[in-house]
Specification:
This protein is an all-beta fold and about 100 residues long. Helices cover about 0% and strands about 55% of the residues. The strands form 2 sheets. The chain has a 5-stranded antiparallel sheet with strand order 1-2-9-4-7, with no helix packed on it.
Length: about 100
């Protein structure tokens, strides 16, 4: 067992990206964004699951807009191009899993 801290960093600085777990079949990143901050278009070679712990984030995935909040999850298949923009201050977990 391992407890992995993911403290709120937005008080001390803007955009925060940190890999918090790296396993052979998966990786977990913590991304914290202030409202209006963006992550440019990119893709992953793995399946990706987005979990919003706080706030609302607008994702554009292959030209389709979707909003992720604490009430839902987003799954993206490998190689789907996507970008994101925080609508509110946001704290998300990005879980990458080998297909």
């Amino acid at each position: 067992m391992e407890v992995i801290p993911t403290p709120l960093k937005l008080i001390e600085k803007a955009k925060h990206l940190e890999k918090v777990v790296s396993l052979p079949q998966a990786a977990i990143m913590n991304i914290q964004l202030k409202a209006g901050e963006e992550v440019a278009e990119h893709h992953s070679e793995r399946d990706v699951i987005i979990v919003a712990r706080k706030g609302i984030v607008r994702f554009e995935v292959e030209g389709n807009e979707v909003f992720v909040s604490p009430e839902n999850l987003l799954h993206m298949a490998p190689f789907e191009k996507h970008s994101l923009r925080a609508i509110e201050d946001a704290d998300i977990l990005v879980i990458q899993v080998e297909p």
